[in-house]
Amino acid sequence: MAHIIAADPAHLDWQRTTVHTEFIDQIDEAAERDATYMIPIAKADLEDERLLLPAAQLDLEKLTIGQRVYFDLEVYPFFQKIKDVMMTDNDRKGVCRLRRVIPDGIHHSWITTDLYVLSQVLGTPESVWIKRTDRDLDPYHVIATVNFGGGTMAHLDYTFSQKADKHLALEWSGMHTIVEFDSSATNPVYPAVSSIRPLAYSVDQLLDCAHEVDAAMLKTLTALHTDITGGDRS
Asked: What global pTM score does this model have?
């Protein structure tokens, strides 16, 4: 079966890509059965189930079992480093802080999918509180405070603005370990690791992090999406 990936070419890391990948403008150009193809998100039909799709840019209420998706946060090399620290840091007790600035429109799916990825590491949220500004104003802010129980929390801060540049920062403050990433920093990961482009991922990583939506994932995403979009909740 051909792999046809919908992604943003500007964020692809070709230095770390080992999979031969061909660019196409239409899905029907994917002729070879065992080849890997890349179609820009701007040209892709995000409801086409033949594609490996970016979950953060989908209408999650239309997601169906069997679709193949990837999660933006999960595909970055820096997240894999921070995830390793989180999973070994005193039973994952600590505070996770995430901040995004997103210039391409308001999509609560960004928040839902980030929280889904974090919940795979930190466990099922016990409670979620949401604060938001007026959606009709630019910038539009959403803050989610998440209690995972057992001494673990997360603070997720989102700014949606057509006037801003894309930005992502993530920090884990554990009992004895702090590790952080900031895409706008000269040295984006602390403690320092090799980083060529802060917000870049390889085709290999997209394929490695691909998920087929099943009933359990759909149930979890639906519950988290309700928490995020349903207003204040305690």
From this structure: 0.90
